[in-house]
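Pilot study result, target chain (131 residues):
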Amino acid sequence: MTETSVNEKIREIISYYKLSDRQFSIKIGVTQSVIGSMFQKNTEPSSKVIRLTLNAFTDISADWLLRNKGPMLISEIKPDPSIEQMKRLVDTITTLQGIITEQTKTNQLLTEELKKAKGELAMLKNERNIG
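Predicted structure:
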């Protein structure tokens, strides 16, 4: 697999947005001669041009532009399914913790009522035995 240069990637961005070199240079905030020279001499863009490009085109993936990884548009990047699964598990755990807390409170109340009932029963038995 051949690596696509950043210069070629910028050409792809210009083509994707159907811009002229002049329109592109205005959009990123550099003179047309900077872009023209870059393409004529086939030199890689400066870090400033790269930064300005990524700032002007916020939907362009920096990983695609700089590392040749993933799709050009951030919107086309698929979320990691394991992260989504992890979020669902955290939600489930949080829900279950809430249920456990409520059931613990209910158990404590029932335990107190049972102790009270046992105490009352013992008192009734004592009254019967005395009387």
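One observation from the pilot: The helical segments are 6-16, 21-28, 32-40, 47-56, 62-67, 81-130. A full batch analysis is planned for the follow-on phase.
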